[in-house]
Amino acid sequence: MITGCGDPLEQGHCFCQTCSTFHMKRSKFDKVVRRFDFGDAIFESNLHHVRGASGFSSRSTAEEVTHGVDGTGLTAIVTGASSGIGVETARVLALCGVHVVMAVRNTSSGAKVKEDIVKQVPGAKLDVMELDLSSMESVRKFVSEYKSAGLPLNLLINNAGIMACPFMLSKDNIELQFATNHVGHFLLTKLLLDTMKNTSRESKREGRIVNVSSEAHRYSYPEGVRFDKINDKSSYSSIRAYGQSKLCNVLHANELAKQLKEDGVNITANSLHPGAIMTNLWGYFNSYLAGAVGAVAKYMVKSVPQGAATTCYVALNPQVAGVTGEYFTDSNIAKPLPLVKDSELAKKVWDFSTKLTDSQSGESSS
């Protein structure tokens, strides 16, 4: 990610991926980078492609990390499967024989994506279902319909998200990024957990829950999670709010992994950073930044097939069997922010989220 080498951005003269792996002069892009005050965790060098212990790197694609994997008999839900890396995740899982349920906000767009995937992967098993993660009512409706269909569930890919939007409240009166990126997925996972447990037990196959987080989890608010100020508009930072939601994705996966392990359930829960990818997540950035991004994108960001690789690796690759409570990047286990290992914070986020979703079961509160 773009960070400094210990020097203020105003004085620095390099891009650094985790402060060490890639350096280049900033020139005109300097001014754009300095407009942000979070580290700066937007771009990631795609030139750092040393293969890790898994045998894969930042340049590996989703097809490469699942090569030879037979997903026949598995059923997966992929949220946000109508755009960005969600499309590629759905396509590659289907290519491996997985029955993919595309949980999307816009079913018309989802139907078009499904049609395109079937053209590429004849015989692909795909269904499109409506899901708006910013609405708890929509999440509950989706789960109800899913269960009514009698479908099993082996893989839950919590992929959908929004990034750096202006301050807005969800239909449940929760800051929109926190609501969409964390709370919606927390509730979805909670309501589908029994289905996953039953599937794992009956099929005797490991279930996997995958939370797509981001390196931006390192750049939340100074206090990490602002439990008492989730909806505080006056101190809202679009970037830090995004980081907060991504931090909660990791904490959620870690606490879930702990609970599932204690219960002896054959389901793993992990989180990951997909890499910096030019997708519609960038929609809230202004045209000036978008132009600057475009100028360096081919050097600094991943392609969509590369961006979907870590998700598909964690979801399907045999190397990840039994691995739980870990954070991945570039299809390898990585070290997240040390705060992520705070079990008390993880439990606090779990309890806070549970209370939030329980309180919204009947009516919204401010």
From TrEMBL:
<dbReference type="Pfam" id="PF00106">
    <property type="entry name" value="adh_short"/>
</dbReference>
<dbReference type="InterPro" id="IPR055280">
    <property type="entry name" value="TIC32"/>
</dbReference>
<dbReference type="InterPro" id="IPR002347">
    <property type="entry name" value="SDR_fam"/>
</dbReference>
<protein>
    <submittedName>
        <fullName>NAD(P)-binding domain superfamily</fullName>
    </submittedName>
</protein>
